[in-house]
Specification:
By secondary structure, this protein is of the alpha+beta class. The chain has helices at 2-39, 50-53, 86-101, 116-131; strands spanning 56-68, 71-82, 108-114, 145-154, 160-172, 183-188, 193-195, 209-211. The strands form 2 sheets. A 4-stranded antiparallel β-sheet has the order 1-2-5-4. Helix content is 32%, strand content 29%.
């Protein structure tokens, strides 16, 4: 009798546990779907992420973003995948959006544009902070023309490797100033610094918000671009 009662209690507890797990899973799935729709993340068909468009993918797992003098350095560590199958690409796209919805800090990157004058002023600010000098007058000095360049210092070649990027100012002569265009950039409002990243994220409209996937600002993807949905 006691054995039957024990088996019955075990069956009840197992059923309750499975029911709780199923209910919690259903609530999480519903939350993720609603949150992805509310934030306006692109669908697989709309997305321009590297998971979909590039033959090789560098999946970033950890990164460090810092200022070194007047140069912005981003170090990224991750997995280098060569021609992954379609199912893995789709899984990375979906996983990226799911992880971003559970990011407790809510970090994001914003698409901005730096005019030639803003580029000069920002370079002056970085120089002053690195040398502890006073900031120059906030005007566009004659013959003080600056443009920003992006460069990949180390490209990943192995399965587990690192990518090193930099964003740095370059002085140009006044006669080339008329040919200088505004610089599209990705701005990290948490650290108040731009990112040296390039790619399709720079083609998004100014003011676009890109939610961070993990803890670091360089862990971003087109998958988490907050698109403006047209009202029905």
């Amino acid at each position: 009798m006691s054995i039957k009662k024990h088996n019955l209690n075990a069956l009840i507890w197992s059923g309750a546990s499975l029911g709780t797990l199923a209910g919690t899973t259903a609530m999480l799935v519903c939350y993720v779907r609603n949150e992805i729709q509310r934030r306006g993340y692109p669908s697989w068909q709309e997305c321009r992420c590297e998971f979909k468009t590039q033959p090789t993918i560098f999946q970033v797992w950890h990164s460090r973003h810092e200022q070194r003098g007047e140069t912005i350095i981003a170090q990224e560590w991750g997995t280098y995948l060569v021609e992954p199958p379609h199912w893995l690409r789709y899984l990375l796209h979906i996983s990226t959006q799911i992880i971003a919805t559970f990011n407790p800090l809510g970090h994001y990157i914003e698409r901005v544009t730096l005019s030639p004058q803003q580029s000069y002023q920002f370079a002056a600010i970085l120089h002053a902070s690195a040398t502890n000098e006073d900031l120059p007058e906030p005007i566009f000095q004659e013959e003080s023309y600056v443009v920003w360049r992006r460069e990949i210092l180390h490209f990943p070649n192995y399965l587990f490797d690192a990518c090193l990027r930099r964003l740095y100012p370059v002085n140009i002569p006044p006669e080339r100033f008329e040919k200088v265009e505004e610089l599209p950039a990705l701005w990290d409002p948490t650290n108040n610094l731009p990112l040296p990243n390039d790619g399709p994220l720079l083609d998004t409209p100014v003011g676009t918000r890109i939610d961070c996937i993990g803890w670091a600002p360089a862990q971003i993807s087109y998958c988490t671009v907050r698109q403006q949905r047209k009202a029905l």
